[in-house]
Amino acid sequence: xxxxxxxxxxxxxxxxxxxxxxxxxxxxxxxxxxxxxxxxxxxxxxxxxxxxxxxxxxxxxxxxxxxxxxxxxxxxxxxxxxxxxxxxxxxxxxxxxxxxxxxxxxxxxxxxxxxxxxxxxxxxxxxxxxxxxxxxxxxxxxxxxxxxxxxxxxxxxxxxxxxxxxxxxxxxxxxxxxxxxxxxxxxxxxxxxxxxxxxxxxxxxxxxxxxxxxxxxxxxxxxxxxxxxxxxxxxxxxxxxxxxxxxxxxxxxxxxxxxxxxxxxxxxxxxxxxxxxxxxxxxxxxxxxxxxxxxxxxxxxxxxxxxxxxxxxxxxxxxxxxxxxxxxxxxxxxxxxxxxxxxxxxxxxxxxxxxxxxxxxxxxxxxxxxxxxxxxxxxxxxxxxxxxxxxxxxxxxxxxxxxxxxxxxxxxxxxxxxxxxxxxxxxxxxxxxxxxxxxxxxx
Length: 443
Hints:
It contains 20 helices and no strands. The mean pLDDT is 82.
């Protein structure tokens, strides 16, 4: 890794970080703010009583696809090289799937679920491939800062895409006053998002050099040969888990606490609009503030991580999130005591919580880079992607729980995910193992 890092130029780091800028448009517009609420309100028939469960199903299907493909394709990358072309394929899958949502109208539930499955799987795979470049562009001393730069820039990408979409979706209040126009505006919004993703990702493909080389003996390997190797590596996952036990113990803890974050990211728009009855203007303000605080948090915690270490930083942000979630649970009381409206109290919680969004994701990505053995970065980040997706499946239990017990009570499930994940992480010797790897004491 060190030889590669010496030749890295600043424009490559910028190009790599721009992929976070690009793909944040998908999470902001499609799975968090705009389309998630549109799906549950207007795509699902009005008489349905399992709206959150349908949304959970769409995300679970896409997650299963990514789980199956992430470690397999990661192993193929490590043997065959050419990570950038796999990043391109996943980017096209996400963008084209997003564009396809234009053709979805009220009642087309299964068509929407199919396209969400394709686009979200493409997003998740692309996220893993992009992350695997981190070990080519950074060393163990500056990895936290560079990873934080990517996450921070990503939130500005979310802001830019949100501004674009809000320009497309002109206020129709209430939407039922001109439902046809409101639906058409949301369809145009997904077109804008898909194009934004493609165009914003171009600097990554133009500026970043693909340093991944085929392993000896696989220089001219065909796809079928690489698939066989990938399947073999996948079958040996259990032995890898024993060989790299510290990394896989981290993956388990990561899966649990990320389940809490995934619930927030996937349901916050639905919760704010339907449970708290925030207006579109209030909801927009909340997300603008959240994106800005998340960007600042990712950058600041990236520098803080170099002082505290990755493990302490993650634990600190987990505690941060527990407090924020409890604040959401007691939101009415906070609003009453503070003499605020529900919307203003929620905005206060969003400012606090937002600073921890980028940090927990960026710091976790840094841990994988620190603990990945030489020559297996794509595969280990493939497993990182797989456990990220398992976190989504675990977190999507929130949908059925919310349908049965109510969204407000289901917030306590999020607190449980963070608390249990933090407890598991406490016992993982991350910093000690990373130091051993750096000094060459661990294979």
